[in-house]
Specification:
Number of strands: 6
Distance between the termini: 22 Å
Strand content: 5-15%
Radius of gyration: 17 Å
Strand order of the largest sheet: 1-2-3-4
């Protein structure tokens, strides 16, 4: 629960949003695999119903999921959508590839899940190749992240490091700027995007 990625991201968020409520889901008691992710949906139901009862303002709520946690984020977003309480934003940090767990497909993050959905892809082994957000980012082409030297797990974990750093980076000139490519990462890698517009990756 209090692992490195959790501490790093939360510390960055609190530096910027010290007056916000940050809710963490502790699933350390569940298997950290595809089956464990599905089990968490039952537990999430209880939490979500209690949040609605407490008057959660979903129009100001940002849900973030990493890896397998992106399916839980997708489930949460769909739960609120079905209750006619759409979330303001959902962020997917290198969503896991569905090839080994097709039963999780209904909970994959989609652009229809919130008013704004952004996804960061950082590896080709664990991560999903699908473009599902309003904006999908593919730093370094979505693979071979700096300092990872071909280690796919390292590439996978880079996504939350990028997000955490994007939270704390000020001024805006230090943000992770990206080039627009209306097609896909393959088109970008082929240098066939105009790159005229840019948007900051992350927070």
């Amino acid at each position: 629960f209090y692992d490195e990625e959790t501490q790093t991201v939360i510390k960055s968020l609190l530096q910027v949003w010290s007056n916000s409520n940050i809710i963490l889901v502790d699933w350390s008691a569940c298997p950290t695999d595809y089956v464990g992710a599905k089990h968490m949906f039952k537990e999430a139901d209880k939490i979500l119903k209690s949040l609605i009862g407490a008057g959660l303002k979903t129009e100001r709520t940002h849900v973030i999921g990493f890896g397998l946690g992106t399916f839980i984020a997708g489930y949460v977003a769909k739960f609120f959508n079905n209750a006619s309480l759409p979330l303001a934003r959902v962020t997917g940090l290198n969503p896991h590839n569905l090839i080994n767990a097709p039963f999780l497909a209904p909970y994959e993050i989609k652009r229809s899940d919130a008013k704004f959905v952004d996804i960061i892809h950082t590896d080709e082994v664990f991560g999903s190749p699908t473009t599902n957000g309003h904006v999908d980012f593919w730093p370094n082409g979505g693979k071979d992240q700096v300092g990872c030297y071909g280690d796919a797990l390292c590439d996978h974990f880079r996504t939350w490091r990028y997000f955490s750093e994007s939270v704390s980076k000020k001024p805006s000139s230090l943000k992770f700027l990206s080039s627009s490519c209306p097609s896909n990462v393959t088109t970008f890698n082929s240098h066939n995007c105009n790159g005229e517009s840019s948007v900051s990756m992350g927070f």
